[in-house]
Structure formats: C-alpha cells, structure tokens
Amino acid sequence: MDHFNSFIANAGLLEVSFLGDQFTWCNNQAGPKRIWLRLDRLLTNLSGSLAFPNMKLVHKPRILSDHCPLVASFQVPTKLPRSFKFFRQWIQDDDFSSIISRSWASDTEGPPLVKLHKNLMRCKSVFSKLQEQKKDAIHNQILETSLQIQHLEVKLQAESNNDSLSELINAQQLLTSLLTKEEGMLLDKARVKLLAEGDCNTAYFHACIKERRNQMHLNFALPDGSHSDDRDILGPMAVEHFSQILTSDLTSRFLYPLGFEENSRLTSNLLDFIPRLVMNHHNDFLCQPPEWNEIWTAIKNLNPDSAPGPDGFSGHFYVAAIDYIKDDLQSAVIDFFSGGSLPKSVASTTIWGYFSKALNLATCWDMPSLFANWLEKINLSTYFGMVTTSIAALSLWNIWSSRNSAIFAGSSMSWTCIKNQVMKGIQDFSATFNPKSQGSFLNQLRLKSLNIIQIPIDVRHGTWIKWQVPALGTLKLNTDGSSINNACTGGGVVRDHSGEIIMAFSSSFGTGNSAEAEAKAMHLGLRLCTERGLSISSIELDSFLIINCFNAQWDPPWAIEYILRDCKNLITPTVSISHIYREGNGLADRLAAHGHTCQGIAIFDRDSLPSTCFTAYQADLLGQPQYRPP
C-alpha cells in the first residue's frame, strides 16, 4: 500500500471528492465478520482537475454486488466572451488611420471624459469586427507564403533567372512582415494568458513583495552599542522616545528657540520650529492643470507591453493615434484635474464588472453612498434576518482587512481573528439597530449554534386606528393626495353619521409634489361640496403640513399658499380640520391612488365606487380598526 501511495504522489494524481456513503465495498458477511472498506476511488491529474473543476463522484447504493456503483459527473465550465484587447499589429494595418479618423469624426455630446470614452468605444467596436474578419488571415497567409517560397526555391534550383530570384525575395520579405505581425499578436496573447492563469504565475510578484519586506526590515542600534530587531525591545523604546518629545519636559536643544530655558515647557506650537519648505507658489504650481507637454510625456512613458486598462487599449494605441485623439484626450485630462465628474463608464473595472453582473449588484461610486445603500439592504425585521443579510459583507470586509495587514504589515492571517471580528460587528449592529423581533424558534436555535448572543429586544406595541363617523345629522370630508414620479393626484369622500357615502371623487392634477396633491385634493373636495350644496362640519387629512399651514401655525410653501387661502373662503368658521393617521384614512387614500388612472375629475357614489376602494369602504362602514406599527 505504501508503494501504491508513493506511485500516486509521484504521478501527481489527485483524488476526486465524492458524495454518498463513505464505504464502497462490503464482504456481505453477518455479525462481527462484516467488513466495510473504501476500496474504489477516482483519481485525476492536474490538467483534468483544471479542465473539469466541477467534477464529482457519487457513491450509489449497493444492490447485488459487493461494490457500490460509482458515477462520475463532468460539468464543462461555461466559457464567457473574451474582453476586448488591442493588438499591436493593428497599427500596421492599412485601415488603422481611417478607423480612428471615422470614430473621431462623429459628433459626441457630453463632458470631455464621456466624449473620449464614447469615441474609444466606437474604435473598440470596429477593431473587434476587424479581428473577427482577420483572425485566421495572417496564419493562412503565412502558410501560403511558406509554400510559395518552397515552390520558388525549387524553381530557382531548376532554372536560375532574375525573375524567379526577384519573386523569391519579395515572398521572403512578405513572410518576414507576416511573422512580425504574428509575433506581436502572440506577445499580446501571452499577456492575456498570464492574466487567465492567475495565481499559477504570481510567484514572481510574491518574491518582489518578500524582497520589499526585507528592505523595510528595521534593525536599530541600542544604547549599549548592540543591534536588535526584536519588536519587544524596540516597541517600548519608540514609545518612550516619542512620549518624551510630545508629553515630557523638552531635553533636546534642537526643539528650543532662543531665549527658552532648558527646564521650561513648550508654550508655542511645535510646528513653528519646523522650517517651511513648500511655499504658496509651489502649491499653486502643483494645483495647475497639466500642460500638453506633461501629458504627452506621460503617454510616451507608458509601457506599451503592460496590461491594458479596462477599456482594452494599451500604450501602443495612444501613441499611434495621438494625432487624432490629442484634443479630446487633453480636454479629458484637464477636466479630470479640474474636479470634473468621473462617469461610471470610465471608472468601471473588468473584475468588478464580473462580480456585479454575477451577483446583480448596483454600483456606487462614493464610499458614503455605498455604505448607506448597503445599510439599507440589511433586514432589520428580525434578529436572524439582520445576521443573514450582514454577515457576508462583514466577512468580506474583515478578510480584506486581514489580507492587507498580512501583505503590508507582515502579520499572519487568522481565521479565528476574522471570525471574532465578524461576531463583534454583528453585536454592534444589534446594539445600534435593535431588531424588532427575535424571529422563529428554529432561527433562534440556528443563532445559538453559531454562538451568537442575542441582545434582549425592546418590544414595542403598535396601535389600532379606525375612522370615526361624524355626529348625528352632520357630514365629514376625508381627502388625501398622491404624488408618484411627480404625477400629482387626489381623492376624497363625504360620508354621513351612518358611514354611508354621499359623494366620492378622484382627480388628476398634472405635475406636483405631495404637498400640492394634499392641498389640491382638499380644495377640490370643498369646491364640489359647495357646488352640490353639501354642508360639512369637519375635514380630516393625514398631512400635518397642510393642517398646520391651514391653521396658521406654519408658514405655507408658496406653491400651496393661494390654494389654502381659497379653501378658507369655501368653509364657515365652524368647520373643524383635524389630523387622522393614514390607516384611518384608507378610503381617501385608495381614491387618491385611483386618480392616477383618471383623466380629469371622476365623481362616484356608493354603487359606482372603484373596486380597489370597496374593501376600505366596508372596513370603515363596519368600524373595523387598522393596525398601525410602532
């Protein structure tokens, strides 16, 4: 068995993971003589595991044989379309100049960075089509030219003449040109292959990082003349040194201005004793937009063989096309240094684009917005929901932070430390947001199995709201407004002491905000009551803004000031206006929502009430309360 295991290791074979029972063989004996073993395995080499990364082995149940059937499943990974890459041989193409000039000849609107990006995208589209047309042309031309050279050499050996020699020289020059183009393409593809293989080719970069760490390694001379790099020794010495400078009596003559006593304390700003080397004219020079000579120098210094940016264009392209793109490129650079906005199409990266498409993520380009949008996605209804929606982000953040510490600070990555940081983040979220419910008993057991201590929740009870009928012999008007995508509508209803509908209405008011919708809905209701001779005794709305402005407690916005003034002229001083929560104003709310489907004003009675409003009407008629959460 040892020889067999050594053979597997020397051959570089890997065992494929399996699903099902852990044993594959049984001797089918009874009692203590029964033996179970795992004799059957599936091995593959490194190329096989890379070609089929999702390879699985399933152990099926045994039926008649002493061995269980083994079923291997191979799932070929999905090939995604390759991203665009600019190949250097396109510069020698006869159509290169015409492609650039046509792409830049089109009129493009927008900021300078957007214009530059759109022109580059037009070039990208044309070059992609050109690559599809000519991807096999160079290879076929090389084969044809090679055969032609062989034929001409045989012909020249049979009969020596100047015409055959001239044809041979021309064919050799053509082959050299084609091989040069192919070499440029292969060099570009080699760079793409390096990116595709990922960590398999990163040993050099890891070696560079280790070398940089060695250069940054600190070795200090101690007061006794010896040297040490022990952190336990150097740490307290550094703390003592800076503590003496910043908090203790000054003992260094360098820090004393003339006239200070050596035993005195520093009474002025320490920065006053540091000479100023960067003057105002230096700052002005640094803040100036770059000139074209600086931009052109930076472009020429681009490594043409380095990996291209997310747009796929390398340094070769910018140098070769500079005569066409100079003006747009200079405007884009100056706009960027002048504080211009960075469009999403320019700031995007290929890797992040893959993640965002795979996970259906919305991209945010400033950290405060990103943080706020992520917090909005946390489910705060239950403690378990908060954990499940935040644990992924907390884990990624702490893994990233720990990885940076390992690379740049030389510390070791510890999964235990990362897990503790994630748990601390969950506890901080719980203390900050205080979820309203513990969730189901099963979810509480799941949290307990993760050793997550749930903070006791402050249980708050909601209230029950219902619409109150008016006094005997009086009428009440309820109105509400709605504004969706700046479309302003409203609705209302007049009911008697029994809750029966006297009149209901819905209307569209054009464009406006929610305050205008509320004010116009109340004004329309009062005007319809006046036209029909209905004398109302009370008005109810769910807008504190309209009520306080109507009662002169707040200054009304100018857009609704004239509307509220006309409302006061339509009622008598005995009419009261009061607030009702939205849950109790359900019928008016449904009528306002129905206004988005109306053209102008629609009047209803009980029998013609819209179907979307009938449930709310029945609830108010029966005195059924509606729950209002805390």
From TrEMBL:
Gene3D superfamilies per the UniProt record, alphabetical: Endonuclease/exonuclease/phosphatase, Ribonuclease H-like superfamily/Ribonuclease H
RNase H type-1 domain ranges (all copies): 478-594
GO MF, one example: nucleic acid binding
Pfam family of the protein (one): RVT_3
Residue ranges that the Swiss-Prot or TrEMBL entry lists as coiled coil: none
Protein's name according to its UniProt entry: RVT_3 domain-containing protein
Organism name: Cephalotus follicularis (Albany pitcher plant)
